[in-house]
Structures are given as structure tokens and as C-alpha cells.
Design goal:
Elements lengths: L1 E2 L11 H13 L10 H21 L7 E4 L2 H12 L5 E5 L4 H11 L4 E5 L9 H7 L4 E7 L11 H11 L2 E5 L18 E5 L11 E5 L37 H17 L1 H20 L4 E4 L11 E5 L4 H10 L2 E2 L1 E3 L6 H5 L6 E4 L7 H18 L1
Parallel strand pairs: 1-11, 3-4, 3-5, 5-6, 6-7
Antiparallel strand pairs: 2-8, 7-8, 9-10, 10-13, 12-13
Length: about 375
């Protein structure tokens, strides 16, 4: 089996991640922050170690501003529902994932005004469109840093600077870029950054996080036990406890910590270079085939390692089934991003999405190209 669906979840994981999770479950997986015994304290230290590693990766000064969530979707819901109030205006784009679009639709029904700006066929946002969409009641701009459909990477330096100048909050969906691109939350003027643990950070499913800037006040999505101020019925106001009610996913956090450590030791540049070369090879080989339609940005070194395409005469789901029969794992369909398909002309077909990861090889790409050629030849 050749796995090329890393934009959904990276697989396989580094051995160090697997061993760390196993060690946690077998030897010390107690309840962090809820006891004075050694096992509880060890869990708490491991969780703090993960916050510190993520803070180092994202250039965050205070690790306590890293909040653990179950995934990016929870982080974005926390950001959107914790910031916006009836009467507020928010700007977002047509390339966003449903993890942004759906909570915004829910907030719209409560009286939040939403402006959806278009992108071009390569997936890029016009800075001028953002500027022209700002109103007196604009509260935030929400941007997908890297598209999970096209791989397009937005200029969040410029967008963050604009938001800072305009005095509006800048919320970033980092699902496809955290762990792949260099991100400096202060230099990029990011107020909230949501990210998953199971994609480029090489951790497990069921864990993610959110960075919250000191500049903003955010309402929690939930209240409950935190292990702190337990004699009070009032939710703590200090971080991270304000947003981490209930028992956190200790094995998931331990795995995430080792995934981040693997990235820090390997180097983002080395990871990006390898994955960029794989996408370049894939793009160049598919462009040689006249029956292939490619979508979005095709410069492999300025995008996330994601490529969408279709085969002439095939629905994307049909291609996915045929590839699965040949032992290739890819994603087909609409990728939880309904609006971008209207722009690139794939509303009726979706796309086949290929997303190699750090543990893929050039041979994997060669075999994938052969499989695509054979699918077309055998059916036409």
C-alpha cells in the first residue's frame, strides 16, 4: 500500500511517536493536574514539554498561550464563537474549509454579518478585496493559510500586517501549514492560530491546538473541572485552564510532543525540501499526460504539498476506487471545501487529491504515475 493522503492525516508516524505513546499508556498514563502522586506529575511535565516545543516551533514567547484541543475544527470553533458577537462583521474567503464555513453559518443565524471574498483559479486572495470589505463593525479576518484542495499558500505576512493596521483580529487556519512552513505568530501579527496534531506535526488523531495572542479576550466553549480552583464554581480566567476543562488527551499530547520534536530535530527546511521535490515530480509527470487536468498553483516550492487533478472522462470518486484497488491511498471528492469547487469548475466531479509526506519516496510517485496511466489505458 502506498499512502498519499497526508493532507488528511500523516501516515506512517515516526517510530519515536509510536514508542512515546506506548510508553505513556503502559507506564504513566494517569490524570494530569488532578493529583499529587508521581504519575500525575509526570503527565503534567510531559504536557508542559509539549507546550514548550510547540511554542518554540511557532515562536510563541509564553507556552501557556498554547491551548490543547481535539483538532483544528474545535480550535476554529473556539476562535469564531469565542470572538464574534451579534452585530459583528467578519471577513473570510471562498477557499475555506467547512471548519470555518459551518461555524460562521451558525453565527450568521445569530446576527453576525459574514463577507465571503472570492479567490482566483490558483486559489489566491486579493489583499485589495480584504481592504475593500472592511466595515466599521469588522471584528476579524479568517484565512486558510494553506489550501487543502489546491495547496495555495496565502501571504499571511501581508494580511496580518493589514489586519494590525486596520485594528481587526487575524484568525488563521493552519491545518495544512503548521509543521511544514515557518510560522512566526508575532511577526505575522496572528491573533489566533488553530492547528491539528495529526497532519504535518506527525502526531495522533484526536489532538490539536490553538495559539491565543495576549492582545485578545476569548470566551471559552466549555466550562468544567480543570484541577485548579476546584473549590470555586467559577471557571478560571488564567491560561491554559480557562480553555482546557475536562481531562486532556495525555497520550495524544505525548505523541504530538514527539512529532514536534522530530520536526525540530529534522528541520523544517529539510522536510519542506523533500516534500516539495515529491510534489514537483508528481506535477511534472502528470502535466505530460494530455488527459489530466490539474488545478491551482503548480509551483511546487511555494505551495503546500497538495495537488488536485481529474482524469478526462472519470468522476473523481471512480478514480479513487480504481486507485484503491491498485493499493494507493488518496482523497477524492470535495474535501470539505464546497465553495472553491465553484471557482475551479469541479462542482459536479470533485477532484482527486494527492498529498505526499516526508516518508514517501520518488519511487512512490513513479508507481503512482504508472497507475494513473494504466487506469486511463484500461478504460479507454
Amino acid at each position: 500500500m502506498i499512502y498519499l493522503d497526508n493532507a488528511a492525516t500523516t501516515f506512517p508516524k515516526p517510530i519515536s511517536v509510536c514508542l512515546a505513546v506506548e510508553d505513556c499508556i503502559k507506564n504513566y498514563c494517569a490524570n494530569p493536574g488532578r493529583g499529587s502522586h508521581d504519575l500525575s506529575l509526570k503527565c503534567e511535565l510531559k504536557i508542559m514539554e509539549c507546550r514548550e516545543r510547540i511554542a518554540k516551533l511557532l515562536n510563541v514567547k509564553d507556552p501557556m498561550r498554547i491551548i490543547f484541543t481535539s483538532n483544528t475544527t474545535e480550535g476554529l470553533n473556539l476562535a469564531i464563537k469565542g470572538v464574534l458577537n451579534p452585530g459583528d462583521h467578519v471577513i473570510t474567503t471562498m477557499i475555506e474549509h467547512n471548519s470555518v464555513l459551518r461555524p460562521l453559518e451558525a453565527m450568521r443565524s445569530l446576527g453576525v454579518e459574514v463577507t465571503m471574498i472570492p479567490v482566483d483559479k490558483e486559489g489566491y486572495i486579493s489583499i485589495a478585496n480584504i481592504t475593500n470589505s472592511v466595515k466599521k463593525n469588522t471584528k476579524a479576518v479568517i484565512i486558510n493559510h494553506g489550501s487543502n484542495v489546491l495547496g495555495t499558500v496565502q501571504d499571511i505576512n501581508a494580511i496580518g500586517s493589514l489586519c494590525k493596521t486596520l485594528g481587526v483580529l487575524f484568525i488563521v487556519d493552519g491545518a495544512q501549514t503548521v509543521g511544514y512552513l515557518d510560522i512566526n505568530v508575532e511577526e505575522m501579527s496572528i491573533d489566533i492560530l488553530a492547528f491539528p496534531g495529526h497532519k504535518s506535526l506527525l502526531g495522533l488523531q484526536g489532538i490539536g491546538g490553538i495559539y491565543i495572542s495576549p492582545n485578545i479576550e476569548l470566551k471559552p466553549l466549555k466550562e468544567g473541572g480543570t484541577g485548579s480552583l476546584s473549590n470555586s464554581m467559577i471557571q478560571p480566567t488564567f491560561l491554559p485552564d480557562k480553555f482546557e476543562s475536562g481531562t486532556v488527551n495525555t497520550p495524544g499530547i505525548v505523541g504530538l510532543s514527539e512529532g514536534v520534536n522530530f520536526i525540530l530535530n529534522t528541520g523544517l527546511n529539510n522536510i519542506r525540501k523533500h516534500e516539495g521535490e515529491l510534489i514537483k515530480q508528481l506535477t511534472e509527470e502528470l502535466r505530460k499526460l494530455p488527459y489530466i487536468k490539474l488545478y491551482g498553483e503548480l509551483d511546487s516550492y511555494i505551495k503546500a504539498p497538495v495537488l488536485s487533478f481529474n482524469i478526462e472522462g472519470f468522476d473523481s470518486s471512480e478514480v479513487g476506487e480504481l486507485l484503491n484497488e491498485k493499493n494507493f491511498c488518496v482523497r477524492c471528492g470535495y474535501h470539505c471545501c464546497p465553495m472553491i469547487h465553484k471557482i475551479i469548475g469541479t462542482s459536479n466531479t470533485g477532484t482527486v487529491r494527492v498529498s505526499p509526506g516526508y516518508f514517501n519516496s520518488n519511487v512512490d510517485i513513479e508507481e503512482f504515475i504508472i497507475a494513473i496511466e494504466n487506469i486511463y489505458k484500461l478504460n479507454f
